[in-house]
Amino acid sequence: MKLPFLRTPQHEEEPLVVAMTGTRLGDSVVFAGGSPALVLPLASRTGLSGRLVVVADGAEAAPLEHAAAKHGVLLEIAAAPPDGAGFDLAVVEATDGWRDAVARLRPSVRPGGRIVVIAGRQVSGLSRWFGTADAGPQVTDVVAQLEHAGWQRVRPIGERDGLRFVEAFA
Q1: pLDDT at 134
Q2: Residue 141, class by beta-carbon neighbours within 10 Å (0-12 exposed, 13-18 middle, 19+ buried)?
């Protein structure tokens, strides 16, 4: 008799940011934000055959470079989004300046490419049960901003562990 709860999983669960953005090996991704917890799994997934460019200022760049070196992942840091680079995916962390980033990244994404905006603050452990305060914009605000910036087929794609994900197409 097989008991499913005693079996070991066939593979480890993907990091949440990778699963929700749909990032694959070899993708070219442009990221606006400064959270290593979101950037490092994306850099790991794109691998050597892909490209991850993080749009960050000087204050955000140093911790990201340090975290990337510590974890052995490759990423590029740029002060402004690359124009006409044909990125497959843009990921925006909805912190300070996210509204401008949504509009500025539009020319960097190829036709048919996508953007995923991540709003909120990731919670884990006991924080999930005690209802810590939510951070970041609401889904309706993110949807309105994406539509205003010219993104198409805007839709929320999920919420988990305090993070909300909204997707749109170029």
Answers
A1: 59
A2: middle
